[in-house]
Amino acid sequence: MKLCTVTYNDERHAAVVIEENVVFIRTINTALTQQFPNDVHALVQFETLQQLRATVPQLATLEHVAIHDVQFETPYNTPAHIFGVGMNYQQKLEDLQAERAEEPVVFMKPASTIASLQHALQLPTVSTTVSAEGELALVIGKRCHDVSEEEALSYVSAYTTSLDLTAKDIHAKNPRFLQMSKVFPTFFSFGPVLITANEIEDLEQLRVQSVHNGRVIHENTIDHMMYSPAYIVSYISQFVELQAGDIIMTGTPGSFIIQAGDEAACVITQMTALQHTVC
Predict the structure, then answer these.
(1) Which of 37, 51, 250, 252 is the most buried (most CB within 10 A)?
(2) Chain segment 91-115, per-residue pLDDT in tens
(3) Structural domain containing residue 44
(4) Rounded distance, CA 67 to CA 22, Å?
């Protein structure tokens, strides 16, 4: 199942993507006498998602709207936590001539960094060198704390594309400034479509691309990560009680410097591409 938030005729809708169309949650509720929330943040919670998935065989018969007639919005803006993982691909570590640490580098982003899909990424006035990175993002589907690596992915309800921005010149001043280099407005974006975990047949073979002005700058597959998605969820859950709707970026195959007028994109196998202009 693919979930999204769209605007149609000036109204905002949570929706399910069915091939080249979308079916609004409100339509499902009316036609099938359901009470699903018109909110993707609520829909990714496992209990609700399982109930929604049970309606899939009937969705093709319901009223729908063509994808090209709607405007994709950010799926939601209210995650309790947004986490990122740095230097998670072996190739990037080799390029930097660095050694693998026993534990991953983890940072957080506030919800205020989330970029609207309808607006450009904004370069801050206090930074002269900003990079963008395409990454696979995990969406947590139920509360979890201190879970094992073996059970960690059972708490992931969906996957999606994401872009992580960094003020590299600020981080370069001192490694301790990593957190502050990540928190500017529009320095995080995800979506436009969340694909539920059951639809990903081979997670390790997903190919992640960082795309600059239409050109693939870096790419790699999940099986070349040093810390797997399962390990990342398990590791972070040792410190934080993760909540449904939390988002975890899993690291990038590589970054590129962006300037005003550029286009930054993340492309991942099986997923709708995420792209933004830069201003």
Answers:
(1) 252
(2) 666 555 566 667 899 999 999 999 9
(3) 2-73
(4) 6
Q: Are residues 92 and 230 in the same domain?
A: yes
Token digits of residue 168: 């590299």
DSSP state of 115: P
- Does 61 lie in the same domain as 137? no
Residue 112 shares a structural domain with residue 86: yes
Is residue 63 domain-shared with residue 118, that is, in the same domain?
no
For the segment 67-85, what is each residue's pLDDT rounded down to a tens digit? 999 999 999 999 999 999 9
Residues 66 and 90 in one domain: no
User: Per-residue pLDDT for 120 more than 80?
Assistant: yes
The residues with which 89 forms a beta bridge, in sequence order, are 225
CB atoms within 10 A of CB 76: 23
Give per-residue burial for 81-119: e unless 16+ CB within 10 Å, then b. Answer: bbbbbbbbbeebeeeeeeeeeeebebbebeeebbbebee
Q: What are phi and psi of 132, to 5 degrees?
A: -125, 150
Residues in contact with 14: Cβ distance below 8 Å, sequence separation at least 6, in sequence order: 3, 4, 5, 24, 25, 36, 37, 38, 39, 40, 43
**Is the whole model's pTM more than 0.85, yes or no?**
yes
232 shares a domain with 202: yes
- Contact by Cβ (8 Å): 120, 260: no
How many domains, the chain? 2
- Total residue count of the chain as it appears in this document: 279
Q: Are residues 227 and 128 in the same domain?
A: yes
